[in-house]
Amino acid sequence: MSSRRAEAAASAVALPRGGAPAGDAEMGIPTSRVDPARARQRKLPDPKPITSHGPAQIIAMCNQKGGVGKTTSTINLGAALVEQGRRVLLVDLDPQGALSVGLGVPAQGLDRTIYNALMEPATTLADVRVATGIPGLDLVPSNIDLSAAEVQLVSEVAREQTLMRVLAGVRQDYDYVLIDCQPSLGLLTVNALTAAQGVIIPLECEFFSLRGVALLVDTIDKVKERLNPSLEISGILATMYDTRTVHCREVFSRVVEAFGDTVFQTVISRTVRFPETTVAGQPITQWAPTSSGAAAYRDLAKEVLAL
């Protein structure tokens, strides 16, 4: 992702003259290109089965804006990949511990979490990971202790590479490692970007979410240039899409205009099922396996496997 793409993202947030959202025709974008309903109708190939596991592809779920669906996407993409026969490790890199809560893991009462693996040389990731109750899906939990790591890592040698070193010990055990980043561009998020080969950007179809994409892309470019040459944007995932609003369609159009094929075909629509899964502590693929939300994340898993 070049700086030109960041500039395109920045220009994409500018509203038309008068402040009113423009229609797709006014923007010169073919409706079929930006219609999520049509995109979802495309046939995705069934992934090929695998006979061995590892080394894992590491993907950071990243957006500095909160409430855009990072945690929901991490949980449900992980569960959908497991359904395709992959072994997946989810890493909660947010001191709020939402990923752990979403999987029913009482992280606040745990003695050891990702914080210990990052800050204690004698503690490995294998020591702190826990089973989720879904075969093939493991979790590295987090709680409020992790907030101290942001300060403590500042004085560490090669501080941006701490998570990468920690993950090296378990990469052979999994096919995918999905990192749920905190809603900021601080040192923990830079650690995730340094460790990852790919970044998925969940983007709420809302104007203020779009405004922050240029800053995020610029940060990814800097990490790629200075710390991790293999880092690429795997895709931008449109979330919380509401087919009833012109505003959602307008934002989605601007995202496709700026990023083109980088935008996933799969679009995650709003549904009451997602809040229900958080309370249940289960992925939507288990809580409501026949729902449209479960189908969407299964489609996303196929796209990720095809990358």
TrEMBL record:
Q: Where is the composition biased (Basic and acidic residues)?
A: 35-46
Region of interest: Disordered: 1-54
* One Pfam family in the UniProt entry: AAA_31
Q: Where is the AAA domain?
A: 57-233
* SUPFAM superfamilies to which the protein is assigned, alphabetical: P-loop containing nucleoside triphosphate hydrolases (SSF52540)
What the record says about family reads: Belongs to the ParA family.
- Physiological role: May play a role in septum formation.
Which protein, by its recorded name, is this?
AAA domain-containing protein
Task: List the taxonomic lineage.
Answer: Bacteria, Bacillati, Actinomycetota, Actinomycetes, Geodermatophilales
